[in-house]
# Entry
Amino acid sequence: MANKSKILVTGGCGYIGSHTIVELLQSDYEVVSLDNGLNSSPDVLDGIEAITGVRVVNVDVDLSQTEAALEALRAHGPFTGIIHFAALKSVGDSVHQPLRYFQNNIGATLTTMALMEAMDIPYLIFSSSCTVYGRPEKLPVTEESPIRPAESPYGATKQTGEILYDQFFNTQPGRNGISLRYFNPAGAHPSALIGEASTNQATNLVPVITETAIGLRSELAVFGNDYPTRDGSCIRDYIHVTDLAKAHVLAMDHLVQHKNQKPYEVFNLGIGEGVTVLEAIAAFEKSTGENVNFTISARRPGDIDAIYANNKKITEQLGWKPTEDIQSIMRSAWAWEQVRRK
Ligand SMILES: NC(=O)c1ccc[n+]([C@@H]2O[C@H](COP(=O)([O-])OP(=O)(O)OC[C@H]3O[C@@H](n4cnc5c(N)ncnc54)[C@H](O)[C@@H]3O)[C@@H](O)[C@H]2O)c1
# Structure
């Protein structure tokens, strides 16, 4: 039997990394995870094993330390590709600790390039974000929508990552990369064996909803109901984490099969539909039968009124098709919250 392609998943113990590992294993890839536990616990490897029957090896090293990472990974290759998730991800924290975010996120990104050179790894997928579009003038945003000045140090690390990879892949014959610009990943694996389990406090809407419903928070603050949207609350494009994870497998297949039209490509990764905060709360209540105690509070600085994706490029070129909706996101997130707090 031919050897399976081995993929290095950085941030493999994190939320999106763990779901992507499951999809890779179920698509016949082999996986090595690299994660130093900055925002996760290696316990997630038990959940992955329970779902797939495979015990994934995690290399516990700080990816922003290039020499240490190279040393730690040497024995685990050869790798066909890297899927690079490892980063700090709180917009709010990044405003208070910009240097920490630059050193960790940009440092880790530079190390991925050093690994590609040192270990002769041809392909990479980067976790980018719709934050690169800032406050868009036109909706939905396409990949050609202008990149706006970053609204936070975190956003700057995603923009910098894209700029560096663009230069890197366009000057490195034989190496190809894809950046996936995620919209709002949410929900959990249908088994409820893995889900979002940040060790840092959750700031995204869906975990805040489930934490409020289960009683960990007394109430949920809806930041602003006076935006120019259909009910006054902000609009986002919520994408189920398993749909998101599957896109990484398609993107890696695309690279491995030499289908990239250019050495470096960018794809939006969203459902293509906007949901308001109040609609998201209502979807949670309807799909779970639970109530969420919320209040309307002032707008939060830096929030934009609305963003959602035009996903034509990824559906046409990668054959990706989302299968889960907001109700399924809410049901799975709630099932995971209940299992997690037992
Ligand atoms: N979740 C979202 O809403 C969202 C949206 C857009 C983009 N992204 C990006 O997707 C990626 C994954 O996000 P997530 O939600 O899974 O986050 P997460 O925090 O759950 O996962 C990131 C993982 O990387 C690890 N890590 C961080 N720095 C590291 C380092 N220097 N060395 C080794 N490991 C390190 C953490 O321990 C964590 O397990 C991140 O790059 C994030 O910026 C996330």
About this structure: The longest helix spans residues 98-118.
